[in-house]
Amino acid sequence: MSGPVRIDRSGHVVVWTLDNPGARNPISDPETIAAVEDAVAEADRDLTVRVAILSATGPAFSSGGNIEHMRDRAGMFGGSPAELYRNYRHGIQRIPKALYYCEVPTIAAVNGPAVGAGCDLAMMCDIRLASTAATFAESFVRVGIVPGDGGAWLLSRAIGTARAAEMAFTGEPVDAATALEWGLISAVVEPARLLESAHDLATRIARQPPHALRMTKRLLRSAENHSLDSVLELSAAMQAAVHHTADHAEAVAAMLARREPRFTGA
């Protein structure tokens, strides 16, 4: 599929690939924002999709905002303060909302520099793998602006407030080894093995019953912002639902028979 986000499918795994390498895969253009939203909505509707991988073509993962548009005060970076406020709210901020609330587990396969909103884009995914060529920079201050796409919320939850502050206050990039040490990513692999590693992880996740997967992700998201009592209530309600799925019965039967389960999404 052509466009700013290419969509490919392999079994129960969908791959979203940012495909504007000449501009280093910015995500502030209306076409890219809409494409990400549409890709997430399509995956959410399709119960046969169990995992999504987000990666990019070219040497960079994402440059975030389009710097030339910032210079020219064009696109979402143009207009009065009131218009800019609306441009962010109804523009790039649609991406964190789409990815954060995506029902299926998401894996960012970060192939190269993830800069500004590109760094935050990786944070929007549930799990992050990186190639040795990847770097991460919360670099908004270096162009005289603030994280406008939720980075202040996302980054601190990924690596803690002190290290998030260091990245945001200096704007300096961290390499993949440092990102691994800080817990920003789960693994570092050679560039040639990045997508293979992402697919391996996706396959391990996709083996699980799809309803339980989606509900587990929702519980993890709820746990970030709600009390223990609220999460316990939601957990009980979800348990009542999944206990009546055919996949639960299959999982129990397979475990007792010591065989591989065959989940159908029923």
Automatic annotation (TrEMBL):
Give the domain of life.
Bacteria
> Pfam families per the record?
ECH_1 (PF00378)
Protein name, as recorded: Probable enoyl-CoA hydratase echA8
Q: From which lineage does this chain's organism come?
A: Bacteria, Bacillati, Actinomycetota, Actinomycetes, Mycobacteriales
Instruction: Write the record's keywords in alphabetical order, separated by commas.
Output: Fatty acid metabolism, Lipid metabolism, Lyase
Q: Give the UniProt family note.
A: Belongs to the enoyl-CoA hydratase/isomerase family.
**What does the protein in this record do?**
Could possibly oxidize fatty acids using specific components.
Q: Which CDD domains does the record match to this protein?
A: crotonase-like
